[in-house]
Amino acid sequence: MIRRQQINDLLKSTAFNTEVKVMGWVKTFRNNQFIALNDGSCMANIQVVVDFNNTPENLLKRITTGAAITVEGILVESLGKGQTVEIKASKVEILGDSDAEKYPLQPKKHSLEFLREIAHLRFRTNTFNAVFKVRHALAFAIHQFYNERGFVYMHTPVITASDAEGAGEMFRVTTLDFDHTPRTEDGKVDFSADFFGRSTNLTVSGQLEGELAATAFGKIYTFGPTFRAENSNTTRHLAEFWMIEPEVAFADLENNMELAEDMMKYVISYAKDHCAEELAFLNNRLLEEEKQKPQNERSELSLLEKLDFCLNNDFQRLTYTEAIDILKASKPNQKKQFKYLIEGWGADLQSEHERYLVEKHFKKPVILTDYPKDIKSFYMRLNDDGKTVAAMDILFPGIGEMIGGSQREERLDVLTKRMEEMGVPQDELWWYLDTRRFGTVPHAGFGLGFERLVLFVTGMTNIRDVIAFPRFPKSAEF
Ligand code: 4AD
Ligand code: MG
Question: PANTHER family this protein is in (predicted)?
């Protein structure tokens, strides 16, 4: 018996006239003779040539788009255009039939919207093969980046009893019976009867637990799913997304910015080195897509040029206050083209403002720092001016906010005062405050939205197309 080989290996092979065996799914079957076969190991198909004179009619009929088959035959040099090798089949076996009439993924161009409705099958397309190979490479690169630098990978809990961002955007986790909810004397739901004996939710961020670990290991990172019950139906938001959160002891905002910029460049460069074929495909896909747009809406750079641009330029650093001055004086603000006009200092930046700074003004990734304390989270370190915090947001072209982070407030008295002001319950976070009671140190960290990174590197335009089974308002199919 010969062993099955992967198509990506065979396509590179020069072992002509040897016996080979492959398994895969039929993409197309032309003239009762040529099968384009794909096994997922690469985007390219291998051509299988069937001797139809010596193949039973009922078997030929079952070689349909989507069917799974085993092929044994001889690897030969191909005379056809666009391929160097093909398989002269001596034996074709059907592993799984696919009714050609009913198979939703017909061999033609489908819209991304349609493919989202058949997300269980869309991995079989070239686009999604490429996107998810790049996603894999980026995940791997992130682990490699932190591992090389001596960070410890922490698995922080998915179920928590706290709100790490203090923004109240949480999904509740409960086993209470909705039809007979236990009530306390004053009529409120009695969570002491719930599974954990208290109210719990899906985590919005692993940061707080990450800080506990960082103040023991020195530097750690998390990489896991996080959940936000925000009702945002945009191309940049998911209700379930993956976040990478490094946390470093003895580090300040400057160190934090350096780490973030190094990481971004490292993982983008890794993807370029390891996914050249996929990125070339996605580059062309985007060029084609851009052709549909009017000239003035097309981007100046191709996908690959954008990646290089990001690798070859320092991220622009500026403070929130400087950004407000730029935005106030900007054309879209003067001409009242922004939906939210910038009137003055203190305004929260909307994605239209972030994108103006990155895409129109600086035309490169931007690190904005030192935001007003009132629009940021309770744990960010208060600056000496008493008005701003040592926060940083990293903004990317086409994406907006890619990373959010800060130096943390390590002074117990300042932190508890901030929590009071912002209505963050201290009794629930007694364990967090303990890090400030026992050997507190300056420390800093940030969160990278993994899907936003994948969006940027693949040039896809909707975040729902870079996670396998997207979760968003009114949608939890598959
Ligand atoms: O800015 P955020 O909310 O920051 C935190 O959660 C901090 N605890 C991070 C830290 O300092 N350790 O989220 C961080 C990043 C954002 O910059 C964005 O890229 C991504 O997570 N993100 C989302 N991605 C997809 N869908 C959503 N609904 C997202 N919300 C945030
Ligand atoms: Mg943020």
Answer: ASPARAGINE--TRNA LIGASE, MITOCHONDRIAL-RELATED, ASPARTYL/LYSYL-TRNA SYNTHETASE
